[in-house]
Amino acid sequence: MDGEKRAGLRVDSSGGQTGPPFRPGFGKGEGVKVFLEKIHGVMDLAAKIIMINMLIVVSLQILMRYVFNTPLQWSEELARFSYGWFCLFGVSLVTYERAHLRVTFLVDRFPRKIQYLLEIFALAIMLVFSILIAWSTLELPAVQGNIRAYSLGVPFYVLHLSILPGFGISALHIAYHLYLELKSDKGAPR
After folding, report:
1. E strand or H helix at 11, and its extent?
2. How far is the CA of 154 from the CAs of 47, 137, 159, 182, in angstroms?
3. Quick one: which of 22, 34, 164, 190 is 20 to 30 A from 83 by CA?
4. How many percent of the chain have pLDDT more than 70?
5. Tell me: the pLDDT tens digits for 3-33?
6. What count of other Cβ atoms lies within 10 Å of the Cβ of residue 43?
7. pLDDT value of position 187
């Protein structure tokens, strides 16, 4: 029984564990999967921190304006910048989970092979679109120049650069989903 894979562990002939746990399927694409899971975790944590930041800033602004009658000048701009980053991090998070809204009324009526081909086509279009959006974002600082937010003094391209991680990381997720679809045999007739 040397090298037998039982209950996910490598065992020797006496039944004792001889090495690290056996991970079935840990091969091509698994390192990418782990990398994308880590990126997803970081993006998820960042989105939560940004949401808490927005909640605190907006609550503070309400308190200062209506209780102390002294509104803050910078809170609206900070909330706006935070909201932009939060939304575009959400693009990446939703893409990772493949949770985008889908209208499948017509697609569901096609045979399985056509549905598979349409899924491949949709993922390819999403990948090209995400790459183009992320790439065009790199030009924004040059186009916008030195236009700054009045209260914060931060250049507006800082807000618009949130597009880069949002769509750039989405492109990575989409490429991985496309790889998995092409590797699968979902289009094979039963």
Report:
1. strand 9-11
2. 20, 17, 9, 44
3. 34
4. 83
5. 444 444 444 455 544 444 434 444 566 788 8
6. 21
7. 61
User: Encoding tokens for residue 150?
Assistant: 């009045």
Q: What separation in angstroms does the CA of 124 have from each of 45, 68, 72, 86, 97?
A: 28, 54, 46, 25, 17
Long-range contacts of 58-62 (CB under 8 A, 24+ apart): none
Contacts of 43 (CB under 8 A, 6+ apart): 89, 92, 93, 96, 165, 169
Question: Which stretch of DSSP H or E encloses residue 4?
Answer: strand 4-6
Contact indicator for 17, 1 with CB cutoff of 8 Å: no
Say whether 9 sits in a helix, a strand or coil: strand
Tokens 């065992």 belong to residue: 11
Residue-range domain boundaries for the chain: 4-183
Residues 68, 147: contact at Cβ < 8 Å?
no
Residue type present at position 54:
M
Q: How confident is the model at residue 189 (pLDDT cuts 50, 70, 90)?
A: low
Hey, what are 137's tokens? Answer: 């974002």
Higher pLDDT, 187 or 171: 171
Q: How far apart are CA 53 and CA 73, in angstroms?
A: 16
Q: Look at residues 178, 174, 28 and name the one whose alpha carbon lies nearest to residue 117.
A: 178
Question: 171, 136 in Cβ contact below 8 A?
Answer: no
